[in-house]
Amino acid sequence: MPKTEISFEIVEHIGVLSTGSKGWTKELNLVSWNGREPKYDLREWSPEHEKMGKGVTLSKEELDALKGILEKRE
C-alpha cells in the first residue's frame, strides 16, 4: 500500500513544553493538516520542523475542556 503524503502548515506556534537531548521539542501549535481548518496540536518536532512524532489534535472546544479538567486538578 503506497504511503499517503501528509501536508501541514504551522499557523501559530503557541509554546514549547520541553526539549529532548537530541533537540526535538514537545510543542503546542495551531496546525492545518492537508489544507483543513487549523486545530490545536500537541506533538514532538525535530529541530527543523521537518519530522514529527505522533501527537494529539484538539478542536477549540476540546482544548477548553482539557483546560477545565487541568484547572480542577490544581
From TrEMBL:
GO terms for molecular function: DNA binding. One of its GO terms (biological process) is regulation of DNA-templated transcription. It comes from the Bacteria. Residues 22-68 form the Transcriptional coactivator p15 (PC4) C-terminal domain. This is Transcriptional coactivator p15 (PC4) C-terminal domain-containing protein. It comes from Phascolarctobacterium succinatutens CAG:287.
